[in-house]
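Hi Prof. W.,

I finally got the Diguanylate cyclase (GGDEF) domain protein prediction working! I wasn't sure whether to trim anything, so I left the full sequence exactly as given:
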Amino acid sequence: MLATHIQIDICFMIMIFIIYLNVRKSNNYSFDNKILSFLMILVIFVLFFDALGWFFDKRVWDYSEIVLYFVDIIYFSLSCIIAFFWMIFVYIKLYGNMDMGKLKWAFLAVPLTLFLILNITTPFRKLIFYVEDYTYVRGSMFALQTIINFGYLIASSIIAMIQRKKEIYQSKKDECLYLALFPILPIIGGVLQIFEYDLNVLWPAASLSLLLIYINMSNEQISLDALTGLNNRGRFVKYINSAARNLKCGKRLYLFMMDIDDFKNINDTYGHNTGDEALIKTSEILKKFFSLKHSFISRYGGDEFAVVISLNDDTQADRVIKEMDKFVESYNENITSGYNLSLSIRYSYTQGKDFDLEKLIAEADENMYKEKRIHKRI
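And this is what came out:
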């Protein structure tokens, strides 16, 4: 049994380390990926100290009780720290930053701080655990670490589900859902281990959840444009095909094609870094403008973008273009750069019957380039 527990911990340590290396090698080593990498390192260490705890428990050696205290103090401390940082990861993943306010984060860290103090002093007070006759024994306040750990995990799930209700895009809803479901395996493993101490399921279960998170994040990155963070062309094709098949009767599915006016001139005059900046700014404009319009935004290629949206008629579509032009003008007034952004935008639509994607794109492209030629003459 002892050897099996240690082997399980070692296997999951190796698995998490391999995932960690893949995350570090990722082209998109963003802030949320850095937090995820840090979590993986913590999980590797907690698995290591879990294995040491199993090894030293009931070992009658010189100083083995001291070693067991040291190992278990670190183990329980890491467990609580991981739960807290998981909450931080979820918040950053959902909102892109930690701008909740220092006071709120400090308040959320109070349970962690309280537990760490009690845990570090446990050799003297025996509240969390103690060692008796070379054997680990749960203390009178052992349940506190379970309550705090589960509390952080459940709070993270609640945050994710609240955000899911606010999201418009299905991809973001799916992201919120898998973040909310992450704690299920660790909580089940934790409950089983509370009632059956000899089981070793908590951290293997948490490791499997991390693996699922990594798989979901990898799939997400495959579908996103690396520079702008918008959906890429492949995801656009899948989405519009699905949307056209499921279009409600009486509705039209509009494809807006747009590109940046004088983009080549921006690149040639200010350099490719500024060109990339223009693409990023354009993506931000599109995200803000279409955020409440139940639309699908993608970078189609180069400086060309595509937006798919269900509307009733051309009157609504023309209104979208007018409002978009005003939005871009307002954006230019509020920024200071050596150039102004402007977009050539036109559309085509399908009613779902005899849907032909190539024809739809070609028609929208042709209309857009007509508009672009008008812009050049102005």
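The longest strand covers residues 252-260. Does that look reasonable to you?

Thanks,
D.
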